[in-house]
Task: structure prediction
Amino acid sequence: MSRIKEDVKVYQLYINGEFKDSYGSKMKTVSNPASGEVISQIPEATIEEVKFAVDSAEKAQKSWAKLPAIERAKHLREIANKIRENEEHLAKTITEEQGKLISLARVEVNFTADYIDYMAEWARRYDGEVVQSDRSNEHIFMFKKPIGVVSGILPWNFPFFLIARKMAPALVTGNTIVIKPSTETPNNAFEFAKLVSETKLPKGVFNLVSGSGSVVGNELSSNEQIGMVSFTGGVDTGTRIMKAAAENIIKVSLELGGKAPAIVMDDADLELAVNSIKQSRIINNGQVCNCAERVYVHEKVADVFIQKLSEAMKDTKSGNPMDESTEIGPLINEAGVLQIEKLVEDAKKRGAKIITGGKRVVSATGLYYEPTVLTNVTQDMDIVQQEIFGPVLPVMTFKDLDEAIHLANDSEYGLTSSIYTQNLDVAMKVCEELQFGETYINRENFEAIQGFHAGWRKSGIGGADGKHGLEEYLQTHVVYLQYNQNKK
Ligand code: NAD
Result:
């Protein structure tokens, strides 16, 4: 039986500027993956409550869109400042429910505030167009307008940042939003709602409903009052959301999984490659969509590289994520560990060799997995083709760049990729031929606020961040204005 924390928190839905209990009175418990303790109870919203949240967002949207964008931006900046004032409390909330290292949780909190400020800056910068007409005395105006109500459905791995990634571009462009956090990590979203409730943001502009994907998530994907569903999560869920959204032709923006290849050439700075690939693989305890998940190393440097990588992975301190010296914390839940065990066991049965790691770490919850390196893997193995949310790296060798590019592209995912080389010609060939939304050259995988994070193939549709991410939340209204009809 799980232990229950003394000051277990009980959260309420946040709809139309008010916190309220769910009428359904069904509550779900949330646990700390490092200790197993029950830390909170969250409401499972009913369909009627989700509809009420969407309704509130729709009513609020009309006057919100009429505010000058710079006024909307002021509200966003007020939220960003509140986040900074509450950095430590928010970081501890994230770590407690997700198992993220406290140092990374602080980065997530500050990055979220910066992201909101960045999107607020677009208030004076996004614009429409006036284009040439084929007729005399005519102007063609292209207005950029908000879509209306946006729903944001979130995963658990960067739960706090993802609220902002959806809310900030939606709100600055005049949309309102209903957010659904993951049931694994809802607490930070409720703490976020508390901060929002202390600001002057008009009622109904930001709403938060919690509950299951099949009920709350499904309603937020299919409700005809919603103009766009912005989803981040797995491919299977993305497929279900797209089908549900098709019912009312709702626009979808899908940020899905990844299986990022890292290519290490024979001229690479091996220290840099080992450190960057290791950091990329263990950050957030190995649970990031964009991080290096399979390595292709040139056969000439394979032995040295594998030895250095294995030593570095082995030399990783696992422990309590609240402890500042810990380098890797727990995985999110038992299902996550079982999935890794299945992939590693399957690879072993098919001839893979474990160089380091390969099993669970004995711990309070049993949710820790050893940083693992495998060789003797082949391209057709699940461990090379399926997403692994844990610190596991399969390594293969290649003879020449064409082979490496072919192997890297051979994936149903197309989110991120990386290459380590000191040869400009090689780097440029890779820019031409790798088929991914992002490629990192001689650095770890991690996107910038002003970039554009968008997956190819099954990694998604649409994208986030920067100018292009902002434009996802706008639709175009073309107006043809004929004037002075009677005068030549
Ligand atoms: P998930 O797909 O299991 O769940 C994500 C959200 O979808 C949750 O809130 C869940 O309740 C909801 N959901 C589940 N079923 C639903 C349904 N039928 N309709 C509507 N909503 C539903 O994903 P997860 O396990 O929380 O997160 C891990 C996944 O997220 C990984 O695949 C990872 O790669 C991906 N991810 C991608 C990015 C990116 O930017 N591309 C970023 C972070 C995470």
Summary: The pocket of nicotinamide-adenine-dinucleotide is lined by residues 153-158, 180, 182-183, 213-214, 217-218, 221, 232-234, 237, 240-241, 255-258, 289, 387, 415, 453, 455, 460 (CB under 6 Å). The chain has two domains: 3-256+459-476, 260-441.
